[in-house]
Amino acid sequence: MRTGHDLELVHVTKRYGDAVAVNDVSHLFRGGSYVCLLGPSGCGKSSTLRMIAGHEGVSAGSIVLHGAEVTHLPPARRGTAMMFQSYALFPHLSVRDNVAFSLRMKGVDKPARHRRAGELLELVDMARHADRLPSQLSGGQQQRVALARALVTDPQVLLLDEPLSALDPFLRVRMRAELKRLQRELGIGFIHVTHGQDEALALADEIVLMNDARIEQAGPAREIFNAPRTEFVARFMGGHNVIALPQGRFALRADDVRLAPEGAEAVVRAVEYQGGHVALTARMAGEQELLALIPEAAFFADPKHPGDAVRLAWDEGRLHRLHA
Ligand SMILES: Nc1ncnc2c1ncn2[C@@H]1O[C@H](COP(=O)(O)OP(=O)(O)OP(=O)(O)O)[C@@H](O)[C@H]1O
């Protein structure tokens, strides 16, 4: 296992004409960690990733990898590698030659590059398909090959742009575990762009949540979920209510709201069975709606229906003050 190298963005900005896609972003990506760059469509995630990869120039600022400025280096000389959403495999090359491609470009002799490609195909469990063409592989298999191909240059940081979005939900969860395993085994940094908060929570040591061309909040996954700084973070991460009280605005986790004999009066608006729990939406005085996630057994011991009057309670200590 290798010690990871830190990657730092220093006041990085990207403009396309008048539009600002990334606005003065600074961040230190810790070496060897799994970071998810998360945010809604158009917030600047892919532009950030492409600048790190060198596929896109910066408009201002610098990018530093392990103490060396790489801002203006071509992609192949940065120590990063990118895995694309579409995998971008060469259709006329075998799996082995796809993986070995960039070594061929570097002038590595055939036995050496085939040996290295073989090792990486082993790593992603695709060695037995080395002679196939990409068209003879499933989506999940193509993705493993794309991963092996990106890793063949021994990058210090692997960049992944929505790597799971083309897979069906079942395969997505399986590949998610694979990515995490690979990252742990290799000990290099992964920066993974996604718009799925569940994907980021499942994978990331650190989540960097972007909104409107800036970083809204960054931190360990549990911190982002449990201590959202702003209303945007609370709503984007989901599972929270945002409530207005005389003292300010607060986030309150839906699983911290319970039905109780004493509490705020409310009228049930909707009830949804979700397996392990029931999602109950109720309207309180002042038109505020509150979502409560109630454990299945507790709910069905005394089921409620739309229109029923209920009382909702929570512990004051679970209210989390929002700063914007
Ligand atoms: N080549 C381009 N020319 C002009 N504008 C662009 C270009 N690429 C991106 N943009 C704009 O920059 C902003 C950020 O785009 P970017 O692709 O980085 O966002 P994103 O968060 O990755 O979104 P998505 O999840 O939809 O891919 C968007 O408003 C987008 O329209």
Short overview:
By secondary structure, the chain is an alpha+beta fold. The protein has nine helices and 17 strands.
Describe the overall structure.
This protein has 324 residues and is an alpha+beta fold. The chain folds into two domains: 7-226, Rossmann fold; 241-321, RNA polymerase II/Efflux pump adaptor protein, barrel-sandwich hybrid domain (OB fold (Dihydrolipoamide Acetyltransferase, E2P)), CATH 2.40.50. 28% of the residues lie in helices and 35% in strands. The protein has helices at 45-53, 95-105, 110-123, 139-151, 169-186, 197-203, 221-226, 231-237, 296-301, and strands spanning 7-16, 19-29, 34-38, 60-65, 68-69, 80-83, 157-161, 189-194, 206-211, 214-220, 240-245, 248-253, 258-273, 277-284, 289-295, 309-313, 320-321. A hairpin with a 2-residue loop joins strand 9 (206-211) and strand 10. Helix 2 crosses helix 3 (110-123), helix 2 (95-105) packs parallel to helix 4 and helix 3 (110-123) packs across helix 4 (139-151). The structure holds adenosine-5'-triphosphate. Adenosine-5'-triphosphate binds at residues 16, 19, 21, 39, 41-47, 195.
Number of helices: 9
Number of E strands = 17
Look at the structure and name the CATH superfamily of the largest domain.
P-loop containing nucleotide triphosphate hydrolases
Main beta sheet? 6 strands, mixed
Q: What class do helices, strands and sheet pairing give? A: alpha+beta
| Helix proportion | 25-40%
What is the total number of structural domains? 2
